[in-house]
Amino acid sequence: AEPAGRTYAFHTHHRAQLFQIVRGSLRLETERGYFIIPPERAVFVPSGVLHEVTYLQETERSYLFFRPDAVASLSPEVSVIGTTQLLRELILAFLEIPRADAGSLRAERLVAVILDQLQTSPVAPLSLPLPASERLRDIAADMRNEPGADWPLDELASRAAMSPRSFQRHFQSETGMSFRAWRQQAKLLKSVEWLAGGRSVGDIAFALGYSGPSAFIAVFRAAFGASPGKYFQDTPLKL
């Protein structure tokens, strides 16, 4: 298991990587965005992508590496996916193969089925795009660190030396999301992180600035298709 707080600073791999989280959670950040990977999810990182990994709780995980040509049909972007019971069992079966037999026919067949599962696995909405410019990126970092704080648009725009309208236009241009939608997604990712760590729904709701648990649950359900209390249960709805 990886201890809480352990960070692997920005690095790349010459092979594609698949992290599967069994228990705990991690945060993965790239130059273009950041991702939260809670239990029973996995993150696919294409080869050559610069990324940093931080374990948010004590975390049990497994991972596989793939040759770039083997995953050419998969997304060229980092993506968080929901893992089915079948995919989890396939990964475990592959990891039980001795290293000396990694090129065996059985191993090749398992890899083929794993890749087929990855192609059809739903992408989980657990990512947040980051602005490209330094001034907006710094502001985004502060909002990520304190998602429940009051962030008046006028003050943020002034900090970026822009008018409020210009600030919103630049923010959407650089992230692909409206400022309001981005803030809500930042809150949702923080809530998933806290839920994975065992924090209560009521505590999370108030920490993120919602009027109460009901308001938070409604927003969470609209985003993820399940209530916070059921999000980590092994059901077809869960991503």
TrEMBL record:
Domain annotation HTH araC/xylS-type: ranges: 134-234
Q: Which InterPro entries match?
A: AraC-bd, Homeodomain-like_sf, HTH_AraC, HTH_AraC-typ_CS, RmlC-like_jellyroll, RmlC_Cupin_sf
Which keywords label this protein?
A: DNA-binding, Repressor, Transcription, Transcription regulation
Superkingdom of this protein's organism: Bacteria
Q: In Gene Ontology terms, what is one molecular function of this protein?
A: sequence-specific DNA binding
| Signal peptide annotation | none
Q: Does the keyword Repressor apply?
A: yes
User: Pfam families, per this entry?
Assistant: AraC_binding, HTH_18
- PANTHER family assigned to the protein according to its UniProt record, in alphabetical order: HTH-TYPE TRANSCRIPTIONAL REGULATOR NIMR (PTHR11019:SF199)
Protein's UniProt name: AraC-type DNA-binding protein
Biological source species:
Mesorhizobium muleiense
Q: What is the lineage of its organism?
A: Bacteria, Pseudomonadati, Pseudomonadota, Alphaproteobacteria, Hyphomicrobiales
